[in-house]
């Protein structure tokens, strides 16, 4: 609907066209930066790393200056002025676009250079201190610099501004308009249901034997994005230390995975996850008109919902595996006898409370996130001081997951995020899971035959539905409103709990 | 010697430092452009090609404006002014650097935008017309647009300026300070010796049977740049439609090759050639001080000499193959019985006059180049009109190589260069061969034991010699002077003829 309107604006509104032309240049600079990053991750010669850092900092400086400086701001102001003086179709969407743009501009320019430099200095020091502290299990060496980071992040919240609590300003960077008080309610519901659920969860034995050379894993992994609907001519799959998805242009999406010779499923789930992200970005790029602030993802939570939905709701379903099981075995040269379907399927949906978030299964994962949310919020409500962090972590893990944390390395030192100053980011992981389950449930109600289609490796009805209800919205709606319109309900954890519960019940039967 | 001087200039001369700092930004922009190009060649998703074109044109526009505009020009003028007023060490090299810079600046800014746009439009039209004309063997459809290109190139020569003939201005773009009249003498000598030589040249039969999967070829190819002295941590080898070498930063060199399943030598010679280019760039980067106009290759002829020397003088020598023969066989799973050394070695040095330059052997290759030089020069002396091009080509091929050209597709339509307006470029190929032979001969006189070292896969004495006599000179000397200082003689074709003659004699013995 709004796509065709978008297309015509530029021809009828000269100031709007001028601002959008300049926006395209900034878009190019950002994509060029993504090329440099992508190349760095997929295997830059190590001698080139230092200069690549210089190239990236030069380029991001250029992009930043082009964005916050003139002539771009003046052009945007003229476009806003022009829009208020017209009554042409699309007026309210243009208003939304320009409001988002000025919010982005304010965000990008409200931090003083001195703060940015100090933050960059402290977090880069903190990274190596954190690596060391985790290795040596020495929390005391990390806490002083973490305190500096927390102080700087408090300052950032002040620069950003907030009405209720500082943490809202931090959340807003990743999940615009999200409020800590709302998340508290959402996560409390989830927690109440999940804690009794994980007591019933089932572990499964590792079903693979021997090694599977990476070359033998590549063809199957490369077929997955195509199976999910990413055009063959629109992506590249590479390998990197940490799997990621990135956009080097409107129709150029890159995915990476990490191969393990002993476990050929590890790469598969990375590919499914990253393909979900790439499909979202690709769906947005399909919208009419050139680059604009509206043609972007609405929030990290929604972004994560797209990866989680394909990874979990689809990728851990019986029907999906019924569809790909023969191909999977064939590509790896495994016989059905040595890897029976039930054994594989159990393993894919196994669950066991554990200490490390990044290794957690789909059922226990959210409790890891809830713990971090509680702790972060307490810090920024000044209810928790850093010297009590270790104890709070251990208590939280015990009450949420029932596990005893033996030391801080397996406790609050495990994640990289805080050493980089990323507070407010963790909640988007569980928001993604909540949104994914809610979206998938709404989709299934309208498309009850989808599981049968999956058995035949048909996924297009789901992609079409997601394009219509999620991708095509871009940033025209806030996340909450997007979920509401797509599912007919406020975001809530009911569907995630139902989904996870069904997984546990299924495992009991096997 | 001049390295350490370079290092200190920036600290003692503030204006020089300021100009160099700005030069570094332009250097970053150029390297970033190389990243985009490299990625495009090694396998960008095809849907991304069009936007990549936009990104590249935006970025090269940015680099161009930063280079020819203020503040860079003012900073460079201040640095020049400062240098004339001092008597500090390195003065003459700084003067050379700034002279080169102003020559580059004048070159970049002397062409009117209208000319640049017209040239770009005409050559991009010409490319597809040329593709079609070659396919259909229809010279008449190509000649009109070629005439437009020639007219535009005449204009370019006028904008660049020249004292004797227009062709000198064209040559100067690729081989600075080279004069057509000098090349005429150099190439006439070469021609006189080569024509009788090729009559004695020997062909050889294709020695491989069956197919060699690309995966099985990669490890051996990847070991070659390391064998030649490129640090493992400083390069990446990928595959692309056309092999090339590019520099994405001072210590980040990229090489590509093209694999043929039926011919495992094809990729090997591309790798040796491109490694030669990469070693030259890497050698220049090793010089003290940051990026500067002096830290660049002196000419395409010298660049080509570095690739040819490793590809031919080294890579087609008996001792080199004695060193790598067992590894080569082992990596491909070929037995010694099915590929005897003498058969392989004959094939590597085979020679037979043929129609297509890019498929020509080392002995006949230069006659292809000489023909193009004669024709290009005649066009720009207005001694040859385009309607006589086809006939001139056929006559030239007959008298130089003794072959009959059956049609224009295998004649003057075979090369892409003219459709892109690249006149004056071809001679650098033979200059490269001439320089390579002369340099290698001088090196061998000082290092007579090198062939024995090669047998043991030892190549460092050659790389050290090239670094000292070629790489470390950067652009501080013109090509002619560089060769003179390195070899004690004016550039001449005697050593190339001697080398090729020895190859033919060797084949007679086998």
From TrEMBL, chains A, B:
Q: Which domain of life is it from?
A: Bacteria
- Enzyme's top EC category: hydrolase
Q: Which UniProt keywords apply?
A: Carboxypeptidase, Hydrolase, Metal-binding, Metalloprotease, Protease, Zinc
Active site annotation, chain numbering: 274
Which metal ions or organic cofactors does this protein require, according to UniProt? Zn(2+)
Q: Does the keyword Acyltransferase apply?
A: no
Task: Tell me, in a sentence or two, what this protein's role is.
Answer: Broad specificity carboxypetidase that releases amino acids sequentially from the C-terminus, including neutral, aromatic, polar and basic residues.
Q: Might you give the EC number(s) for this enzyme?
A: 3.4.17.19
- Indicate what this protein is called per its UniProt record: Metal-dependent carboxypeptidase
| Similarity-based family | Belongs to the peptidase M32 family.
| Alphabetical list of Gene3D superfamilies matching this protein | 1.10.1370.30
Record note on cofactor: Binds 1 zinc ion per subunit.
Q: Which InterPro entries match?
A: Peptidase_M32_Taq
Binding positions for Zn(2+)?
273, 277, 304
Please list the reactions this protein catalyses: Release of a C-terminal amino acid with broad specificity, except for -Pro
Q: Which GO terms describe its biological process?
A: proteolysis
Per UniProt, what is one GO molecular function of this protein? metallocarboxypeptidase activity
Q: Which residues cross the membrane?
A: none
